Amino acid sequence: MKTLKRSFIFASICFLLLPSLALSADVIIEPENEFYEQHKSEIVYLDRSFIANGKDGFASVKKAPGSKEETGRLQNGEKTYIQYSCLYNGDYWGYSLVLRGWIQTDQLLVLYDYVAFEEEHFDELYLYKGDYEKIKENRSAIAWPWPGADAPLWTIEDIDTEHFSVTYDYTDEQGREWGFITNFTGSRNVWVCLSEPLNRDIPVFNPAPEPTKWVTETKHTDINASGDPMLWLIITLVAAVVVGTAVLIRVFWKPNKPVQGGEVDG
Amino acid sequence: MSQALLASLGISLALTLVFETGFFLLTGKRDKKDLLLEVLVNILTNPLVVLLYWLTVLRWEVNSVIIVPLEVFAVLTEGFYYRKYGLNFKHPYLFSLAANAFSFGAGLLIEWLI
Fold first, then answer.
1. What is the pLDDT of residues A223-239, one digit of tens each?
2. Using one digit for the tens of pLDDT, what is the confidence trace for B39-77?
3. How far is Cα A87 from Cα A76, in angstroms, rounded to an integer?
4. I want to staple B45 with a disulfide (CB 3.0 to 4.6 A). Which of A29, A79, A161, B74 is the partner?
């Protein structure tokens, strides 16, 4: 009876946890990195792909920005996804989740993506006012990295139009309407062609340009521990505690008289 | 970094005081002035050791073996104070070594358990 009761409680807990498990699919994975843990508040979410372009033929992966310790190398031309960026001592660094380390961004080139498209076409973006007619008809749509890209990504199936919406819209020169999806059933930061949702053969009108130097649009706070006033305050506090305690002992404790053999017998 | 360091300083000192006071009582010592001396001596050494450890290992990437000379420094300093000011420390340096080993071991055990 007791076992049955326990099983019931366990099953109930599992049932209650189900929605949170589903939600966790959207949660951004945080890196297990000491530097990240220490400077979380100054680290910026980036979510972009880069290729290595180091002077020595590779990009060095470090366990922390500014670190001497190299934990890996990314050969020039190899691709990596950079999840976070930070500014350390005047240099920008990116965290690669796969390589589990930091790479100075001047050793990388950023690949053209939805962010670059948005920056280039910012003035042409607008809010969608339609009713997703073609999406409702087909209940599926092909995802694209950006309008007019070289190749599509995948097909988003079984679209529940009740919950489907686009963040903003773009109309290409041929009059096709495109909608940007921030997050819909696992498809994050992708575009769909609202006018021709299932057309995989839309002519390429915006091919990916060569990877370029990354320039941040987001304000980063420089992380520089030597210039951290809080650290200097802690050092001063510790010094004050040490000196204060030593003085306290000296004032309130009477020194023992030296005993033959060097030790005090109590 | 500063917040983590501050937390580390606070937690380390609190745990050290608990373990070393416990060790003091376990060894049968009851003199209040000696107990207060033991507490003050740990307040004198522990924050300094923790701060130096943080700065050397995390900031300047010195190998974590640095903990050995830092612990030796703590044992010698505490032993010196027990010898100079303690009332009932028959073997001050040995007591200091044992108390620090007890506290360090307990810390490692907690870290392992967590």
1. 875 566 788 899 999 99
2. 999 999 999 999 998 888 766 666 678 888 999 999 999
3. 23
4. B74
Q: What is the mean pLDDT of residues B20-30?
A: 94
| Residue corresponding to tokens 């100054």 | A42
Residues of chain A with Cβ-Cβ distance to B35 below 8 Å are none
- A68: contact with B, CB 8 A cutoff: yes
- Both A101 and A216 in one domain: the answer is yes
pTM for the full predicted model: 0.57
* Distance to chain A for B19, nearest Cα, Å: 20
Provide the domain limits for residue A41. 34-111+211-222
Per the rule left: phi > 0, alpha: psi between -120 and 50, beta: everything else, A14 is: alpha
In angstroms, the CA A145 to CA A154 distance is 10
Amino acid type, A55: K
Alpha-carbon distances, residue A257 vs A46, B4, B40 (angstroms): 66, 43, 21
- Burial A30-59, CB ≥16 within 10 A → b, else e: ebebebbebbeeebeebebebbbbbeeebb
Output the domain CATH number for residue A57: 2.30.30.170
Q: What is the ipTM metric for this complex?
A: 0.92
For residue A257, list chain B residues with Cβ-Cβ distance below 8 A: none
Vertex A176, ends A171 and A178: CA angle to 5°?
Answer: 60
Report if residue A76 sits inside a domain: yes
- If asked whether residues A47 and A107 sit together in one domain, one would say yes
Domain count, chain A: 2
A240: closest chain B residue by CA: B44
Comparing A5 with A88, the larger pLDDT belongs to A88
* Chain B contact present for A255, CB below 8 A: yes
Nearest CA to B13 among A146, A242, A158? A242
